[in-house]
Amino acid sequence: MKRYAIEPAIIRVKSGETVELQITTADVEHGLDIPELGIKAPVQPGRTTTVTFKAPARGEYTMSCGVICGPHHDTMTGKLMVE
Asked: What is the pLDDT of residues 46-60, one digit of tens each?
């Protein structure tokens, strides 16, 4: 994560698999939120946050930054694509 971007913007996983995301940021505090999956994880600068979950049913799930990080915070989104 970096100010106003989640990279990669699209993460593809297989339904039923155990997924481990390792999330970092070098600038300011962010948060990875995937509301439909109950994921709300703070991401501190210079540290790695690990989020582990079982991929749900097929579909698209919105990822967003859960910590207000500046004027373009609302555009900081991505998609978790479960296939």
From this structure: 999 999 999 999 999
